[in-house]
Amino acid sequence: MAKSHVSTTVNGDPVEFLCDAPETMLDVLRNTLGLTGTKEGCGTGDCGACSIIVDGRLVCGCLMLAVEATGKSITTIEGIGAPDRLHPVQQAFLEDAALQCGFCTPGFIVAAKALLDRNPDPSETEIRYWLAGNLCRCTGYDKIVRAVQHAAAEMKGQPA
Amino acid sequence: MTAETGIGARVRRKEDVRFITGRGRYTDDINRPGQLHAVFARSPYAHARIGSLDISGAEALPGVVAVLTGADLAADGIGPLPCGWMIHSRDGSPMKQPPHPALSQGTVRYVGEPYAVVIGETREAAQAGADLLDPDFQELPANVDTASAQSTAPIHDGIANNLCYDWTLGDEAATDAALASAAHVVELDIINNRLIPNAIEPRAALGDYDAGTDMLTLYTTSQNPHLARLVLSAFVGLAPEHKLRVVSPDVGGGFGSKIFIYSEETVCGWASKRLRRPVKWTADRSEAFLNDAHGRDHVTKARLALDAQGRFLGLKVSTIANLGAYMSTFSSSIPTYLYGTLLAGQYTTPAIFVEVRSVFTNTTPVDAYRGAGRPEATFLLERIVETAARELGMDPAELRRRNLIPKDAFPYATPVALVYDTGDYQACLDKALALSDYAGFPARKAAAKARGKLRGIGLSCYIEACGLAPSRLAGQLGAGVGLYESAEIRVNPTGNVTVFTGTHSHGQGHETTFAQVVSSRLGIGLDQIEVVHGDTSQGQFGLGTYGSRSLAVGGSALMKASDKIVTKCRKIAAYLLESKPEDIDFEDGVFRVRGTNKAKTFGEIAFAAYVPHHYPLEELEPGLQETAFYDPQNFTYPAGAYVCEVEVDPDTGITRIVKFTAVDDFGQVINPMIVEGQVHGGIAQGIGQAMLEACRYDRETGQLLTGSMMDYAMPRADDLVNFDLDVVRTDCTHNPLGVKGCGEAGAIGSPPAVINAITDAIGVRTLDMPATPLKVWTALQAGSAAAKGS
Amino acid sequence: MYNFTYHRAGSVDAAASRLAESGDAKLLAGGMTLLPTMKQRLAQPSELIDLNEIDGLKGITVSGGTVTIGAMTRHADVAASAEVKQAIPALARLAGLIGDPAVRNRGTIGGSIANNDPSADYPAAVVGLGATVVTNKREIAGDDFFTGMFETALDEGEIVTAVRFPVPQKAAYFKFPNPASRYAVVGVMVAKTASGVRVAVTGAGPCVFRQSDMESALSGNFSADALSGISQDADGLNEDIHASAEYRASLVVVGAKRAVAEIA
Looking at domain B298-468+634-789, does it have CATH number 3.90.1150.10? Predict the structure, then answer.
């Protein structure tokens, strides 16, 4: 069966790839584009480890067909910040030790960024409700919630 | 410099930059050229004989490279997966250990058991091949139930009553006498619910055999790569130890489930050797539910004897523990030495007797899961103590206080084989009561009632034995391996340091904590220290991470290695400074002749050791590198007091935790920020066990009913609150750091606090975990029906 | 997933004719149920016809006392819509309670009602608010649309294009989510409309249903007290590991009372 040719934008860069119809965006990110920061925890949209931002919206990479990426703009954990230029959410996760094994962490950071992009001043309840799509087995969420609050405060303090 | 980065400092985790930027390197992130993909064919039945298995259709499929079965495994001499802990029954007979082949050989005994593997050029091709396998399954009667397992049809040939062993501990006569003479006897039936671990990273393995060097490299999601190598070479026969390299790179959570030697890792290594190509497998979530070893699953009857003043006189416990269909790596030890020995808890109970019958069922093997035996012991004890307080009309805090081992009674020998070295249980309880405003609870309960809500409060005073383990004692008790730990410090010629530990970090933050220890001891900055773990070709042998052992045992080895480095440095410094080693002071990274300005920095000493132009070569070897092995003299005994406060909506049974307080004594704490995170995570898993996580099998078919995240509920962010933590500190007396371990405490201490709170809120004697809204509502209905009837 | 072909439809007509040509093709809307089902190899369509690029299927309009929501409108857009919040706040609230943010950002109202999961939220809105389902062929009254568990009145090749909600005088939705899946164990939509009171229940039975005893009681007296004598028969309600039929029956009453209390 012929592969589909997809032109899209990933982390601000134009990207082209070939894929089979059943391949998910997560498959292509990890296996074709080598962007392994996005993780697969369940493959069925229940754990949030594969969270990515597509045209400004938080989605599960495991439940998006790669062919759907045509013409879209995709942000993965690799596009949110790098070791020498951390995003405020990443900085807060670092300072507050809001992670342990690190496997769910890219998904949480992507989800938290998506939250703060639309709601710069979320309450603890709003943070907990928004992050309910992301499972973490290590942290009990306590430090994650505090880190998101911390990041929100930092981002508000920054000049726009 | 080191005060900000050394022991006790809230240092940012060194490992985190890679994780927060998506640069972690987990097993599934690794790919090798020419790699093949393995898909396992798994039993759809809980118990069946495989009459015939035709693999020709799958073999002929384009893209399928090989179809391998249990027969191929046996023909290649790949042995069964062993259980590493021998338990003897009360009559002295050894436990009955059935063979556990990595691929089933003729009979499948639980849903999901692998009976063949299809290896393809792609995962899709391998899957298509596996779909073509259609064995002639002849279904056999299956049993998944723990309580009735001894009276159902045998699962393994020659193992009567499905009984692996019938083990006892303690003085039965003394306990019976206490029960007979007691003013009060409280009886309680308790189920400790089966759990499915669900680390967010699924297990994965990549076997990569190099025919040129005859070296097999196995990348795998293991908590203990060195032990995996030992078992796979010595017992399973995968490759000689020196021709097997096991690499556990970043590992995404374990909680026990990644300790064990499983079929899939074994098969990927074996298949790579056989096919001369890399072979990769990554579990999907469904496989994780069906095949990662489950936890808990006890059915228990307990009786507590008290005198008229509420003092505990004796405790008698009878437990049936479910092992699943086969014995996983450490499964035999969990319901015995990690359970029965903990039944004294924090109390002075003089007579304790426990009997444990471990049984086989047609379920996934059961083994250690966060806490492993100790949560089961704590749940039983803290539930029966709470029940006793209610039945005697005493304040639960006061009843506990009356029975706590006093601070001045240490070392304290329990009637169940342990000697607690230190603790201050009274202080923990007092602090927890104060922090939780226990005294203010009646007012909060009244206020809740005015809002139509039922508020309850529950306590739990836990103890655990961790820091596994004194090797000699473990050996006497049946362990197949030692349980010391190792560390090596390689000082590089430029004065920075590479540290190798035999433990493994999969969330615990060793790269930071261990560096803090070295920073404190050697007086160098954290940025000068690299901690390496997880690759048998790099570090020396070690035993891995589980049982809250890494810092207590591995950190102590690191202290020993650091001390050896300092000792050698003193000798070098004395030579360079024309003094004597005993006259050299070492502080903040500087070696100084006492009372003088003559000094050399750590870096200068390192350089001198590697460029030994001016060096005491007659007495000292050049170089600066030391290895230490540390075998603990005793377990460590973290303890604490937890208070949970809940609010129940009586109309719906929906229960919210409104406040959770945890006061722990971990001895010395190296990095409070990391320790808090460990406690948070443990509490969350304990709350999960208490309120959400129910592993359910269909009793007729043996199918796993909770085989996905849509059915098996785990705590999510909006299920929990922030936790209130504090500490009490009594340092461990027998390890050089004074540390006790913190990884499991939360999961051990929290379940009884939650259930005590809920039963308090709704006024019932017992409630099985998980206390779902359905169960709470049903209990409330039964209560109001009873009230109406009376 | 089993293999399949992917076809991006440019229009509803094109999607419909493609669907008619291919016997076992399926429509891809948000994919939040279809894709997990396919990934677990419980479905094997030969082709997916993607509706996501058809602009005419997206969007919310409010006019003349009617809120019209295009079939491919995401739950998140309904939840965040100022117009929906103004006209039918209970509908925005219901959409905001579905799944989690990632599900709400992909899942669509058309996909949800066409799938008719017995635990889905939207059927309670369609029935409870007396909505009309618009397809490429006709209009179907909400009361007639849901015909059984995972069954609807849609014919072969028929595609939902929009849902029209008449603006009620007031409405409220109360939901008891399954702690694992976040689907409704029970969800109750109560609405006071120009043509009477409606009470629709999802999650409890094999298919969304109207609770007529409650509707009668509330017609005379729109207050929670009016429901005090009313019980829900547990017969025929769903039973699973999360909730018994009796528990669900009880939640129906509790949910209805709370919904009424919120707006009475």
Answer: no
